[in-house]
Amino acid sequence: MSEPVDLAIIGAGPAGLAAAATAVELGLKTVVLDEQTEPGGQIYRAIESVTAKRSDHLDILGSDYAAGLELAQGFRASGAHYLPQRTVWQIDEERNVFASGPNGVEVIAAKRVLVAVGAMERPVPVPGWELPGVMTCGAVQNMLKGSSLVPEGRVMVVGLGPLLLLIAQQLARAGADVAAVLETAPLGNYAAAMTRLPQALMAPGYIAKGRAILAELRDRGVALRRGVADVRLTGDDRVREIEYRWRGRSRREPVDMALLHQGVVPNANLGMSLRIDHTWDAMQRCFTPNVDDWGNTSTEGILAAGDCSGIGGALVAEWRGRLAALDVARQLESIGAEERDNRAQPVRRDRDRHMLVRPFLDTLYKPRHDSLAPPDADTMVCRCEEVRAGEIRQLTTEQNCPGPNQMKTFVRCGMGPCQGRLCGLTVVELMAECRGVDVSEIGYYRIRPPVKPVTVGELATLEEIDAG
Amino acid sequence: MFKQLPDDNAELVTVIIEEQSVKVPSDYSVAAAVLANWTGPSRTTPVSGAPRGPYCMMGACFDCLMEIDGVPNQQACMIPVAEGMSIRRQDGARGVEI
Amino acid sequence: MVACDAIVVGGGIVGGSIAFGLARAGLKVVVFDEGDDAVRASRANFGLVAVQMKGAGNPDYHRWTRQSADLWADFAAELEEHSGIDVGFGRQGCAWACLSEDERILKVQQLEQIRAEAGTLGFDYQLLDKAEMADLVPGIGPKVVSGAYTAYDGHCSPLYLLRSLHRATLGLGGRYISNASVDRIEAAPNSFTVNAGGETATAPKLVLGAGLGNTALAPQLGLDVPLRPQRGQLLVTERVRPKMAFHMGRIRQTAEGGFMLGTSNEDAGFDVGTSTGALSAVAQRAVDTLPYLARLRIVRAWAGLRIMSPDDYPIYDQSPRYPGAFAVACHSGVTLAAAHVLNVARHIVAGRIPADLACFSSRRFNVQAAA
Ligand SMILES: Cc1cc2nc3c(=O)[nH]c(=O)nc-3n(C[C@H](O)[C@H](O)[C@H](O)COP(=O)(O)OP(=O)(O)OC[C@H]3O[C@@H](n4cnc5c(N)ncnc54)[C@H](O)[C@@H]3O)c2cc1C
Ligand SMILES: Cc1cc2nc3c(=O)[nH]c(=O)nc-3n(C[C@H](O)[C@H](O)[C@H](O)COP(=O)(O)OP(=O)(O)OC[C@H]3O[C@@H](n4cnc5c(N)ncnc54)[C@H](O)[C@@H]3O)c2cc1C
Ligand code: FES
After folding, report:
1. Which residues contact B81 (CB under 8 A, 6 or more apart)?
2. A124 CA to middle of ligand 1, Å?
3. Nearest CA-CA partner of A266 in A243, A233, A239, A295
């Protein structure tokens, strides 16, 4: 195996790109691996292609998106070694990073590893969410950014969160027929969030942007229905109808596509496979890795930054990436503690100021309990192995199943190819509810590498790589 | 299920989706090509045979599994299209040739 | 305080089998088990009802394994009646592949020895040359030099086995208390009290079936159950349409369709982590045996700890000091599940482990030490 690089960064989103640029500037030999074909991460997906080939679409995607170009250009100019289309499926104890890509399996040894794999959308287990034609809001946004594709026919946007509204706005601008935005936040959230508003107003821009989106949706005639509950999707080989409760009445409407979203949660599998300590976040309803102010995790040499270390949004991700790179530079003695602190000071200030909006957003967009733990026994929980909510409840209450790992072996939830990404949080919410305890007492699946599919043949070749 | 925004600069490639030749922009993922030319579920599950389509488009859910150039169970949302690529529905569990 | 007929410590396949065996004999059983993160071989094993490789050098163990394998079909049917769960047992045999001349010689020696020691029980096996192996197992790789087939072997879903043992015991009025790590047992002849997980149970019988946990608990009952962990790492692939009914010792296709590939043998203490070196060796052997497996994608890898006595054979014991107390520990808890349910549990109900199982008492280790 070749000389270890100073820093291997997994993820070329805002966190990874900013970290890479900073690290290279401080003299660190840096490699960035990402599954996508271009830098940008989720928020700035395809930013280079869109700007170069179809810049008129920037008006649809908005100025926050367009701003990502600078970050991507800074990264390209930095000289960091960029490996796109590489899926990282394992990081071992010696900090060897294993990735699959166009050249087969590559193993990169690193002195430090920064996990910057971002967020994913929270699972949305409503009846019928597994039907074709039901997708996440982020999925459809990806298609708009990456492929200039717009959903056809009558579209319902369902759920909650800042992204829900942003994406509804982008779709409306792109000419999609958004029949309505059905917001599922409990109405009590609005009052509860008001007490956090003054603090949120100190974070620059967020509240004003939210208001602008709401105003634009209104001007474009997109109905926003608040306090929607009991969402159910029905269809045959694709979704045909949506049912929901609003203002005390049940409604049923035809749809061609339903786009779901319940906020984003850390993309946790890679970090969990490293056995780094995680803590249950009762407000954001997800597990978050324990990190210090620089992003150091409980495992030496492994750092985490960006939304995978706790949801903070794209700008905060960028700053967290910078801070992580600064501390890596200090750890590898390319700068001293004082220089690190001096450089960090303005970055931390920005980060902290922007984090002021989070308590407001977290309170406003706290999902309903029944969005997290579906009440209907027939609702699909594990999409891969087709395990439904009723089974999880039954095994918890009747068979005293002690936790998610035993549950997994009993009913196969989390055993499919997605490795629990789409069912893990739901399973633990259901078990906690049945048992009347906090999710922190329930725990989570034990995640092991490979966290992404690798073939038996690829794994077999590693014997040679190890020896060579 | 999806329509294309006007894009005059798009470079096109030809892919074959279930015997049908279609032209799509070269920066589509396979899943995007399939969603833009929807003719039915992109897979049926190995557990119950239920129909499914792409869901997350970011590599997390594995509901976009398709047979691409003869290789079963590929994540269609993560693989870019290529000229002449053959794309087929994944019906239930994959087979494996000896 | 729950008064019951028997307390079982440990809710893995062994404790679960004993509990079900006692419950089907009409005893009211309470099972104490640890939590979700416990070391639990029953959640990590390969699912073989394995005969071919069992008992060279120990005819008692071979006979015992054969007996259990013969009971397995009836056991599986009865378990399904009680639990409603089909554990997918099939007895299609084992086709072992030898990947080198050394392996071939060892295999032949092992099989000959089992046959020689089996006496009147007999032991049927077929040695297969390369061409015969290729006929039996389509797709075999060029590195396979020969093989051996036995019809005694089978396999099942070990996970459904564990689940259905729990389900069946509950259905018969048993109780399963999880998150209940037992550290003290109040013992008197034919009277045992356990307090764990916020519950107290008292019973005239107590069975230690706590896997590696037995070693620490046994002295409280005047028993000695020396065990050590041995790590095994496994892989399972994506689901594939049915291809192979028998198992190959280190390769089997599950009822769901995934190929399970195993397993390493390592001394790693209580570390249940996986390692690239061991898993890649497992993958390499699988690909050498069946090259088409190279194209399948791995969906999961994991590791478990085998429960090994000093000579690797089971331990069945009763306490001389506290009548009513028993210990059951073994590697191959899946293979032996049928014997545990239909045979060992009966002896525990009767209150005595009979002479033909006395060879599995841990006293054998003291004798050896003394010799
Ligand atoms: C689908 C989606 C759409 C979003 N859209 C917006 C938006 O429009 N506006 C907004 O403000 N926020 C959006 N967000 C929120 C977003 O999380 C943050 O704004 C921001 O992208 C976080 O930056 P990051 O660097 O932490 O992670 P990301 O930007 O998510 O970058 C992580 C990168 O890691 C890569 N990666 C992940 N796992 C692996 C692996 N195993 N191997 C190799 N590479 C890997 C991914 O391909 C990705 O490029 C979106 C989130 C999601 C999930
Ligand atoms: C990799 C691997 C492959 C294998 N393959 C096969 C195979 O193909 N065929 C086969 O027959 N066998 C196989 N085995 C062996 C088989 O899995 C074991 O023999 C069997 O699972 C042992 O069951 P057990 O109940 O004794 O132990 P475990 O499953 O370890 O269960 C012990 C239980 O006791 C509980 N416990 C421990 N201490 C306490 C305490 N103080 N208080 C309360 N509860 C306690 C634990 O929480 C646990 O639930 C394999 C094992 C491994 C590791
Ligand atoms: S659509 Fe979810 S992985 Fe491809």
Report:
1. B13, B15, B24, B26, B28, B29, B30, B32, B33
2. 18
3. A295
Cα–Cα distance, C142 to C133 (Å, whole number): 11
Instruction: Determine if the peptide bond prior to A374 is cis (ω within 30°).
Output: no
Are the beta carbons of C300 and A419 separated by less than 8 Å? yes
Q: What is the pLDDT of residues A153-192, one digit of tens each?
A: 999 999 999 999 999 999 999 999 999 999 999 999 999 9
At residue C368, the pLDDT reads 54
**Look-up: residue for tokens 């999925």?**
A139
Helices (H), A220-284: 269-273
DSSP state of B57: S
Tell me the chain C residues in contact with residue B95 when contact means C-beta distances shorter than 8 Å: 240-241
For residue A412, pLDDT over 90 is answered with yes
The answer to whether C261 faces chain A, any CB pair under 8 Å, is yes
- Residues sharing a CB contact under 8 Å with residue C185, sequence separation 6 or more, in sequence order: C9, C192, C193, C194, C206, C217, C220, C221
Q: Residue C230 is encoded by which pair of tokens?
A: 């041995």
Q: Among B67, B96, B97, B98, pick the best mutation site for testing chain C contact (most C Cβ within 10 A).
A: B96
Pocket of ligand 3 (CB under 6 A): B 31, 54-57, 59-64, 75, 77
Query: Are C2-48+159-226+311-366 and C93-153+228-308 equal in CATH topology?
Result: no
CB C341 within 8 A of CB C24: yes
Which residues from chain C sit within 8 angstroms of residue A461, using beta carbons?
280
Domain C2-48+159-226+311-366: which CATH class? Answer: alpha beta
Taken as a whole, chain C contains a residue count of 371
**A250-283: pLDDT as tens digits:** 999 999 999 999 999 999 999 999 999 999 999 9
How far from C36 is each of A114, A443, C164, C233, C341, CA to CA, in Å? 30, 8, 18, 20, 25
Residue A35 in contact with residue B59, Cβ under 8 Å? Answer: yes
pTM of the model: 0.96
Please give the CATH topology (third level) of the domain spanning C93-153+228-308. Answer: D-Amino Acid Oxidase; Chain A, domain 2 (3.30.9)
Q: What domains are there in chain B, each with its CATH number?
A: 12-91 (3.10.20.740)
The pick from B63, B74, B87 for probing ligand 3's pocket by mutation, whose C-beta has the most ligand atoms within 8 angstroms, reads: B63
| C305 close to ligand 2 (CB < 6 Angstrom) | yes
Q: Is the C-alpha dihedral spanning C104, C108, C114, C117 positive or negative?
A: negative
Q: Within a 10 A sphere around the Cβ of A437, how many other Cβ atoms?
A: 11
CA distance C368 to C371: 5
CA–CA distance, A244 with A189 (Å, rounded to integer): 19
Give the SS3 label for residue C122: coil
Query: Rounded to whole angstroms, how far apart are CA atoms B54 and B66?
Result: 10
Predicted confidence at residue B7, as pLDDT, reads: 82
Any idea where the domains of chain C sit in the sequence?
Answer: 2-48+159-226+311-366, 93-153+228-308
Would you list which residues of chain C are within 8 Å, Cβ to Cβ, of chain B? 138-139, 238-241, 243, 256-257, 292-293, 295-297
Is C37 an interface residue toward A (CB < 8 Å)? Answer: yes
Question: How many CB atoms within 10 Å of residue C49?
Answer: 26
Listed in sequence order, the residues at least 6 apart from B19 whose beta carbon sits closer than 8 Å to its beta carbon are none
With an 8 Å Cβ cutoff, the interface of chain B facing chain C consists of 46, 71, 73, 92-98
Tens digit of each residue's pLDDT (9 = 90 or more) over C218-227: 999 999 999 9
Cβ atoms of C13 and C337 within 8 Å: the answer is yes
Local confidence pLDDT in tens for the 98 residues of chain B: 999 998 878 899 999 999 999 999 999 999 999 999 998 999 999 999 999 999 999 999 999 999 999 999 999 999 999 999 999 999 999 999 98
Report the distance separating Cα B50 and Cα A386, nearest Å: 10
Q: What is the pLDDT of residue A290?
A: 98
Q: Are A209 and A178 in contact (CB under 8 A)?
A: no
Residue C371: pLDDT over 60: no
